[in-house]
Write a structure and sequence with these properties.
Layout: H1 12-25, H2 41-54, E1 59-63, E2 70-76, E3 85-91, E4 111-112, E5 115-117, H3 125-140, E6 149-154, H4 165-171, E7 179-184, E8 189-194, E9 200-210, E10 212-221, E11 225-226, H5 235-248, H6 257-270, H7 281-286, H8 292-296, E12 302-310, E13 316-317, E14 320-329, H9 334-345, E15 349-357, E16 360-361, H10 367-379, E17 384-390, H11 396-399, E18 405-408, H12 420-423, E19 430-432, H13 433-448
Parallel strand pairs: 3-6, 3-7, 7-18, 9-17
Antiparallel strand pairs: 1-2, 2-6, 4-5, 5-19, 8-9, 9-16, 10-14, 10-15, 11-13, 12-14
Length: 450
């Protein structure tokens, strides 16, 4: 169980959060994308349930479509039952990690040099730990929030949620009864930008949009035969040419509302000109630092070939060749994207979606956004919250199908020189201890005023 050692001015949630995150990381919940080799979710989910039950929560443990794919739900009643419920969600699975590549063991949860280290430290056991810490504090201390809160800890996000959020939405919508809004990962973190007067400003990026996520299989078929003969219909050649055309293609620049609002705010703070018509928009974005990788990827659709498969012997022309392409599609662009892909790959290559998750976008306004802003400013008065679009995807894609309005808000105040985006799925993934303490304070304030 977590060790609670409160210091003066520090609440229970702050005192527990580092130990909770470290404990969560020690569960190896590596998601390989295959049922037979994915592990640890059940054990981690049962541990989470035990932490909630210890302070008095009634929990629901649900396996989502396959043995061991564990999910935990708990509810806390608010003072106004007439308001829609707010859900806080986090996924328990992580991508695999190779211990030999790491400075510390990726499933050690080591606390060293001011950081909590390990796979999942930022994706997303940091947020799971913060949610768990605040949920435990509210229940233990009898704190009643202004609206009902639903705490959801789910499986399989790293493989698209087929055995997690998607299954839950399709088969157990009762678990989300009354939920109208939700907050999850990859938002609320700080980005320090230079201002024209020589000072800096921390922007806190709230995720209001996500590109669509699609994993596409391309298949070419030809005539099998001996490798020494002449072949005009070689499946490998047909596929390679199609993949090369697709991988080299640059999709058109499209500025969605969330991206436009981010660029406007960034321009106001930095004095830089992020005019979409500029021939060097990418160069200007680069001046924002590492976040440019994410923002740049939200300016256009992408289709990146990631896997190739063909043949079984050096002197045999195979009948079939396959490729997998990672596609990320802007809101409202699905039909145009698919038409462009079909033109690029040509009639001799067939395509099919292995995974297809829709894009999502909401507006940066309303009471919940005001509550996020107020919570950040209460603990970082000189900051500014801004919307942005995530180039990847989260479980919000599934929850939005139930009409839930979703945001990314996992608050962290980060060192200005930390390459935060590189930590996601990266070697030596880690989260600053001070960022966890800050985020816990902000999350508590947010939930008390949501």
């Amino acid at each position: 169980m977590p060790t609670t050692q409160e210091t003066p001015g520090q609440g229970r949630a702050e005192a527990e959060v580092v130990d909770l995150v470290s404990s969560l990381i020690r569960f190896d919940t590596s998601n390989t994308g295959e049922l037979a080799t994915t592990k640890g979710e059940r054990e981690c989910a049962e541990w989470v349930a035990a932490q909630l039950q210890e302070v008095g929560y009634e929990t629901a443990y649900v396996e989502s479509g396959a043995p061991g794919r564990g999910n935990v739900f708990a509810r806390l009643k608010g003072s106004n039952p007439d308001r829609g419920s707010l859900m806080l969600h986090g996924h328990l699975d992580v991508v695999p990690a190779e211990p030999a590549d790491w400075r510390v063991h990726p499933f050690s949860g080591a606390v060293e040099d001011g950081y909590v280290w390990g796979r999942g430290a930022v994706d997303m056991k940091d947020m799971v730990g913060m949610i768990l810490a605040v949920a435990r504090q509210f229940k233990a201390e009898g704190i009643v929030p202004p609206r009902d809160l639903v705490f959801a800890f789910v499986a399989d996000e790293e493989a698209g949620g087929k055995y997690g959020c998607q299954w839950l939405v399709e088969n157990r919508p009762d678990l989300f009864e009354g939920v109208t809004e939700a907050v999850g990962e990859v938002g609320g973190f700080s980005l320090t930008v230079p201002r024209p007067d020589g000072t800096d400003r921390r922007l806190y990026l709230v995720e209001t949009a996500e590109k669509g996520l699609g994993w596409m299989r391309l298949t070419a078929k030809g005539r099998a035969g001996h490798g020494s003969f002449l072949h005009t219909d070689n499946a490998v050649t047909i596929l390679a040419q199609a993949v090369a055309r697709l991988g080299a293609h640059t999709f058109p620049l499209v500025i969605s509302d969330s991206v436009a609002e981010f660029l406007e705010a960034a321009g106001e703070e930095t004095g830089l000109d992020f005019d979409p018509k500029s021939p060097d928009l990418d160069g200007t974005l680069a001046k924002l630092g590492t976040i440019a990788n994410i923002i740049g990827a939200t300016l256009r659709d992408t289709a990146n070939p990631t896997m190739l498969s063909a043949g079984y012997k050096a002197n045999v022309i195979p009948q079939t060749a396959e490729a997998v392409v990672d596609c990320r599609i802007l809101p409202g662009r699905q039909a145009e994207f698919e038409a462009t892909v079909d033109e690029l790959i040509g009639p001799d290559v067939q395509r099919e979606w292995i995974t297809k998750l829709d894009s999502y976008e909401t507006t940066f306004d309303g009471h919940l956004v005001d509550a996020m802003n107020d919570a950040i400013l209460a603990h970082d008065p000189g900051a500014r919250t801004v919307p942005y679009m995530l180039s990847g995807g989260t479980d919000a894609k599934a929850f939005a199908k139930l009409g839930i309005r979703c945001f990314g808000f996992a608050p962290l105040q980060l060192p200005a020189d930390l390459d935060f985006s590189a930590l996601f799925h990266g070697v030596d993934e880690r989260v600053p201890v001070d960022a966890l303490l800050f985020g816990t304070r902000v999350l508590e304030h947010f939930l008390l005023h949501s």
